[in-house]
Amino acid sequence: VQLQASGGGSVQAGGSLRLSCAASRRMFTNNGMGWFRQAPGKEREFVAALNWRGADTYYANSVRGRFTISRDNAKNTVALQMNSLKPEDTAVYYCAAARSSGISTSTSGYAYWGRGTQVTVSS
Questions:
Q1: pLDDT tens digits, residue range 17-72?
Q2: What does the alpha-carbon distance between residue 48 and residue 36 come to, in Å, rounded to a whole number?
């Protein structure tokens, strides 16, 4: 397994969760990374991404100001801190490694995907 997401769970609205994604070094150092999510009956959607150094980040409008993406290249991990969670944030969250070193908001921009982790937010 080259990407492994963890940290999902159930939380009440207004709460916080921190997702983590561990990547094999071979794919991690030079790749942009991103988080996507997929709710039942919906298409997978972009959540957040950052470039290979972590200096540039980009967020979906629906999560901007509430979620923070970060990476630790020394540990080969990417994190998604999720605050002020809402019921509409409920979904399976996926981490992915981009085809390039930059930021991509499209699923086609990602070459590797990890197994998802479930996030459930109750009202």
A1: 999 999 876 667 789 999 999 999 999 999 999 999 999 999 999 999 999 999 99
A2: 7
End-to-end CA distance of the chain: 34
Closest of 72, 84, 71, 118 to residue 15, by C-alpha: 84
How many Cβ atoms sit within 10 Å of the Cβ of residue 10?
A: 12
Give CA–CA dist 68/121, Å, rounded: 18
Is the CB of residue 116 less than 8 Å from the CB of residue 93? Answer: yes
User: Any idea how long the chain is?
Assistant: 123
Residue pLDDT, tens place only, 101-116: 999 999 999 999 999 9
